[in-house]
Structures are given as structure tokens and as C-alpha cells.
Amino acid sequence: MTVTLGEGRTPLLEVPRLSARFGIELWLKWEGANPTGSFKDRGMSVAATRAVESGAHTLVCASTGNTAASCAAYAARAGMHATIVVVRGAAAGPKLAQVRAVGGEIVEIEGTFSDAFAHAEEIGSQPGHVLVNSTNPNRIEGQRSAALEILEQLGAAPDVLTLPYGGGGNTRAYALGFGERLPRFHPVQAADRAGTIASAIRIVEPVHRADVEEIVARSGGSIVTVDDEQIVAARDLLGREEGVFCEPASAAGIAALEHGTARAGERVVCVVTGHGLKAAA
Fold first, then answer.
1. Do residues 67 and 178 both lie within one domain?
2. What mean pLDDT value characterizes the chain?
């Protein structure tokens, strides 16, 4: 049994006005088109399928919101229970509404995302439970499909890839998908990881930090840091100029283009990870 809601095969959108603005050939991998509105669905389909095969009855995750919505939806699709651990007040309301709509259980704790993750690990270690954060290799395996789609849609790897950097799992997944054909990777983090408006990347201690640093070095890229003002400006620019409405974290890759991550004329893919309706107004 494959647990699916029709994830993947998302559009790769050419954006001529932003291309002209930055002097590059810019494309958007529009992951907000996935079933729960974010890239998390790719990996969650694989993780939920493997969990069913193992005989598990509960999916568990710690989340800033997008993983929560995806975990709960795919658990419901599989006829399983979902337990979601969040830091009180740290996850966007619309994302928690998605969890409640499909019957997921929300466990709120005080502390940081690292505390939430530790609590989720403890729950996930119980018999019949499976932790489906990005430390689960099935999540990474599913998310790598986005890079394979880009190769198919473009006919080759781009020169540059920009994407939001929260925990770093998506950077790992794209690197696996591109294989030996790595573009220059520019993962983009918030200057204030603990308090950024971009709640989807509000993670102080990235669990995949070492892997991200290795991928960036191997590809000849860089880790880019942007502040909230730049993130909001990039989100607004994307909406006004190209009609794409994304949540704040998803615009981080656009904000990075102001930092010289691409040279004139280069082909750049910016991963836009989540729909704007997932963020609080």
C-alpha cells in the first residue's frame, strides 16, 4: 500500500520579471502546490508507507508547522494516529488548524524546537510509533524526488540552487537527488533563528548542520543569512511581480539573490517551499 495524496510533480515556473530584475534565468520550484501546501508531503508519503509496512499505528513528529500538517494528513490517509509535538506559540495557526482538521493530536511544550524534538523522539521510541522528522531516512528519500523533477523539467542541473535552511533536511535531499550534478547550493537561514517571522525555519540548532556545511563546500556555494525585513520584502516581491503567494520562509531563496549568489546570465532554481495560506495573516 502506497500512502499518497497526489504529492510531487509540482510546477517549475519561469519568472521573467524577476529574471530581468536580477540579470539571471530564474525558475521557481513551486512546492506550495503539494497536497498540504508544502514540500514536506514528498517525504511524508514515503515515511508513512514504510510505517504501514512495519505495522506501526502512530506517526510522531516535532514541528514548527509544515511537518505537523503533513504528518497528520498522511497518518489520516493511512488510517493511523498522529502525535504532533510543538513549542507553545511557535507554530503558525493555519498549520495547526490543518492538524486538527484531520484528527491529529497536538502536544504543546515549553522550550525550544530542540526540546520538542527530544520529546518526539521519546514518544517515537515506543512500540508501534514511528518518528517521521527528517532524521527518518524515508523522509529524505521522498524529498529527493524534487531534484529529480528539476533535472527532468530543465533537461540539466541549474547553475545555482537556493532554498530555505531550517533543519537542513531538504538541502540533504536535494543533494542526494542531484547526485554528481550538483549546482552551487545556497541554503538561506534567518539572522534570528530563534525569533524570526519565518516560523518554518525557526530552528536554533539544525539537526543536519554538518551535512549542509559539507554539501555547501562540495558544491562551491555558501550559507546565506538574511534578516526578517529582507524575507518579507522578498515574499512581497514574489507576489507582486509573479503572482506567487508563499509563506515568509519560502521567500528566503529569493532574498538570497540580493546577496550575489548568482552571476549574470546563470540559470537559478529557487525552491519555494510552502503556500502563503499556511502562515498567519
1. no
2. 97
Return d(Cα 99, Cα 237) in angstroms, integer: 30
3-state secondary structure 202-271: CCCCCCCHHHHHHHHHHHCCCCEEECHHHHHHHHHHHHHHHCCCECHHHHHHHHHHHHCCCCCCCEEEEE
Residue 219 maps to a domain: yes
Residues 70-102 have pLDDT tens digits of: 999 999 999 999 999 999 999 999 999 999 999
* Residues forming beta bridges with residue 267, ordered by sequence position: 25
Mean pLDDT of 33-58: 98
3-state secondary structure of 187: strand
Between helix 169-178 and helix 145-154 the angle, nearest 10°, is 50
DSSP state of 164: E
In this structure, the answer to whether residues 143 and 127 fall within a common structural domain is no
Do residues 199 and 91 lie in contact, with contact meaning Cβ atoms separated by under 8 Å? yes
pLDDT tens digits, 148-199: 999 999 999 999 999 999 999 999 999 999 999 999 999 999 999 999 999 9
Q: How many residues does the chain have?
A: 281
**Domain residue limits at 151:** 12-38+139-278
* AA identity, residue 3: V
Q: What is the pTM of this model?
A: 0.96
DSSP string, 87-123: ETTTS-HHHHHHHHHTT-EEEEESS-HHHHHHHHHHH
